[in-house]
Amino acid sequence: MKKMGANTLSYVVLLTMAFSVASASDPSPLQDFCVAVNDTNDTVFVNGKFCRDPKLATPNDFFFSGLRVPGNTSNKLGSMVTPANVAQIPGLNTLGVSLARVDYAPYGLNPPHTHPRATEILTVLEGTLYVGFVTSNPDNRLISKVLYKGDVFVFPQVFGSKPAISADVLTKAFQVDKNEVNYLQSQFWTDNHTY
């Protein structure tokens, strides 16, 4: 009987520990939202922006209609990015999320770039799109895939590459001669660590 009670107590302790770990999470934010404003009167400064009094928030602080309009892709890159971040939607301030619409002409591209504070998730709404990213050192590996309507791809915060990014893509992205791209790609070597 004593052993059975000890075993039951052990199971209860283990279950309690498991549930306490499973329900662990980040603490709640200090506020539900912080609508960004440029006026510094009667506001609070949070995360690089001033916050409007939450009692004065309106639906328009959380709304943006600009993504319904296709971007003009008649440019050298054949693409147009329409951002939807705190500059367009003040209610996004401090929420840690933003969005963008990217329109592409046939053979258009979005030049290589970084996202220093966020991971990007891309969904193809129409057509076919070749996407990829370069992993961080030491591998500098290109991870790429062709996406079709409805496909989703995640871009972590990463940037050199094996296999090399297509010289045609880099020539168009950086608006330079293909010989210049080939020269620049030849400058990268794998054993460049300093000790």
TrEMBL record:
Q: Which family would the database say this protein is a member of?
A: Belongs to the germin family.
For the keyword Acetylation, the answer is no
- Source organism's superkingdom? Eukaryota
Give any Gene Ontology cellular component: apoplast
Tell me where it resides: Secreted, Extracellular space, Apoplast
Where does the signal peptide begin and end?
1-24
Gene Ontology molecular function terms on file: manganese ion binding
Q: Which residues cross the membrane?
A: none
Please list the disulfide bridges.
34-51
- Which segments constitute the Cupin type-1 domain? 65-182
Q: Is Hydrolase given among the entry's keywords?
A: no
Residues bound to Mn(2+): 113, 115, 120
Entry-linked Gene3D superfamilies: Jelly Rolls
Sorted alphabetically, the keyword list is: Apoplast, Disulfide bond, Glycoprotein, Manganese, Metal-binding, Secreted, Signal
Q: What is this protein called?
A: Germin-like protein
Summarize where oxalate binds, as residue positions.
Answer: 110, 115, 120
